[in-house]
Amino acid sequence: MGHGVDMILNENADLILFTGDLVNDRAIEMTDYMDVFNRLKAPLGVYSVLGNHDYGDYYYGSHAEGEQAVEKAKNLEHLKQIHGQLGWRLLLDENVAIEKNNEKIALIGVQNISGRKTFHSYGNLPKAYAGAEHYPFKILMSHDPSHWDKEVTNDFKDIDLTLAGHTHGMQFGIEIPGFKWSPVEYVYKEWAGLYQEGKQKIYVNRGYGFIGYPGRVGILPEITVIELV
């Protein structure tokens, strides 16, 4: 983990963006990693959004009731506080202006929204987008890439770039020059790398950590560096 953070810092990026799934199930999983990830700093800030695993659905249940619902809500609030303790600005269905050299772009962050019925959607893109209309360039942070086809390319055609994660490239596949394949492509149309529809683009990061199997075969962990010109 520390080596990956060093790699990020060595890029001297203006801005660092984290597109969700800080934990697998519960906020306490971050206990041993606070001093690793709090090293992430950038001149224009570190921004983050929530992913499907961050809500505790797979531990407490997606429709928790009674005491389970109370504990689930406490867990989510704890995780939100952790983002702040790390020095990250967690975007919860909102947007902020990013300015450099007297030029501004809109950074929009939504809670998890999925185009698949198997995942619960929490976010509200119209709410997150409100007020960003006049910015000449817009970046959306949305954890699940299926959200792009479900809503972004249909109803928000002036969002120039969407940044997502979620698929992990299934931690298994083949990537060689000119060819990439993973079983996850049968589930997600956009599952790793850059895709374009009209003037809109989405980049799907292959993930930094893992879920389940503690390793990867053919699909390496990824830190994405994007230069806007």
Short synopsis of the structure:
The chain has 229 residues and is of the alpha/beta class. It is built from 6 helices and 11 strands.
Description of the structure:
The chain is globular, with a radius of gyration of 17 Å. With 229 residues, the protein is an alpha/beta fold. The protein contains six helices and eleven strands. The strands form three sheets. A six-stranded mixed beta sheet has the order 4-5-6-7-11-10. Helix 2 links the parallel strand 1 and strand 2. It starts with a helix and ends in a 25-residue tail after the last strand. It has one domain: 4-Layer Sandwich (Purple Acid Phosphatase, chain A, domain 2).
Which sheet architecture does the biggest sheet show? Answer: 6 strands, mixed
Order of helices and strands: HEHEHHEEEHEHEEEEE
The assembly state of the depicted protein chains is single chain
Q: Tell me the name of the CATH class.
A: Alpha Beta
| Overall structural domain count | 1
Strand order of the largest sheet: 4-5-6-7-11-10
Structural class: alpha/beta
Radius of gyration: 17 Å
Outline type: globular
CATH topology name, in short, is Purple Acid Phosphatase, chain A, domain 2
Please report the number of helical segments.
Answer: 6
Query: Roughly how many Å apart are the termini?
Result: 30 Å
Which segments are poorly predicted (pLDDT under 50) over 5 or more consecutive residues?
Answer: none
**Helical residues, percent:** 10-25%
Average predicted local confidence, pLDDT: 96
The total count of strands amounts to 11
Q: Beta fraction of the residues?
A: 15-25%
CATH architecture: 4-Layer Sandwich
